[in-house]
């Protein structure tokens, strides 16, 4: 599908980012011919398209202007701009031959890779709307999302499609590069046509598919004034395709002539990210706020290589921002805020040390966005007072696919301010126009960068026959850790087992929506209005007393238990203690694996971590890794005889 090629030895070394137009690494013979043909036939440089033309037009312009510049780096393989455009256009023609037509919604199921970037661009040039699916999501959810988006076809990696066994029409994309010497043109894209349908959590139990237009993506990322991004940069692509931050990571790079560096590891560890940044000379990265806090707390060397870091998803800790800026004073740290409905970022603020003396602001509107702080009657609130944030401007989504009533509820035409999106966020404005975030008007929460409607999880719990009622709250054992706690009232009959309920939820919900803890209670606490008292629920989540030991811990088990205790914020004393049952989650797992690497000198993959998530299981993995690294420690190994 793509023209991928091994890196030549000299490009594997760390070093400065190459200048624009410099050839990047080796190419296959077909790649050389493609680049040569593009160089020989490209017309005189035309003026750069306006952002309204969309990201695909901007990528094509960069390919015509600097065909041999690096576009995508994926492990030991690369794509130049000429190769990217040629492969994407050839694949677009292939998709059209298989029935894809202008306006079709097409689901994309692929692991994150250079092929993913080519496939997204090809779908656009075939005239389709891309509906990203996450390979880690349960099949039932992927099918539901594709159906809600009106997808006529699911394309992607053949092995993934086969294992997913989706019931709708599928098309495995070619494994070999598709290169058409004629370089067929793509379908001309209307700026306001939808580019993506991305799903967010829904308060009715049904996810919301947000239709994002081409124009909105290009306006967000083309020549951004809220951060430094040039053709010399390399931008890390490590977010899931289904997360709107990926639009910034991929198209922020490619609309500015920069390079995308793809993290192909499904769940990269802190060390994986640092190594990739160092190896490929990454200069720009986005991190969810929760991930940034973890990296900052460790003074990760990842910041030594980066020039610009954008964070977003939750409130930024002033303490962690200060630590990073003091340790890495050259770093450009940008605090970004915005819902998917307004295309990733609505406001942004370049954080300084002075900002860290109080609440870090979310900044001012960027790239065509407008903001309005209104009271309950729809009137503007004075400076310094808190109001609900309504967002306008040219980057608003079309609405929610297939949900016109919900679209009308959240998007409205204001007689004076134009079309607006009601965010549900409470914000105040400083005298200089900078905005501060103060919370929500509803129950929606952000955890580890994901937008979560507790009602969606509650709906899934109530679908279980043993559950009469359910409620979900957020438990914060520490400022840097937020966990979902579910409380269920049992229906008449056998009392449901919490671990069984979690397993059933994991079969229908993505991992970030599965509660970290499930408790069975006699009744849900209610407030004076008869609604669930979520504050009272969080009071029910108290740290359990120390576990009674189930026998003495061995030396390695004790070392593992101490690492767990620090991350979980509770004493762990049993060898059979289960990480997930104690409230552990994927971000804490990254912290534990990083600490095990630092303290015991072993590296555990997240796959191994969750395959044996007990103290005893991890101790066994540590022992196995140590024995593999030190063959002289193997029982029965021959004694050293000094060669005699």
TrEMBL record:
One of its GO terms (molecular function) is phosphopantetheine binding. InterPro entries: AA_adenyl_dom, ACP-like_sf, AMP-bd_C, AMP-bd_C_sf, AMP-binding_CS, AMP-dep_synth/lig_dom, PKS_PP-bd, PP-bd_ACP. It holds the Pfam family AMP-binding_C. Residues 25-48 have a biased composition (Low complexity). Residues 1-48 are annotated as: Disordered. SMART domains: PKS_PP (SM00823). GO terms for cellular component: cytoplasm. Keywords: Phosphopantetheine, Phosphoprotein. Residues 551-626 form the Carrier domain. It comes from the Bacteria. GO terms for biological process: amino acid activation for nonribosomal peptide biosynthetic process; antibiotic biosynthetic process; secondary metabolite biosynthetic process. PANTHER family: FATTY ACID SYNTHASE, NONRIBOSOMAL PEPTIDE SYNTHETASE. This is Carrier domain-containing protein.
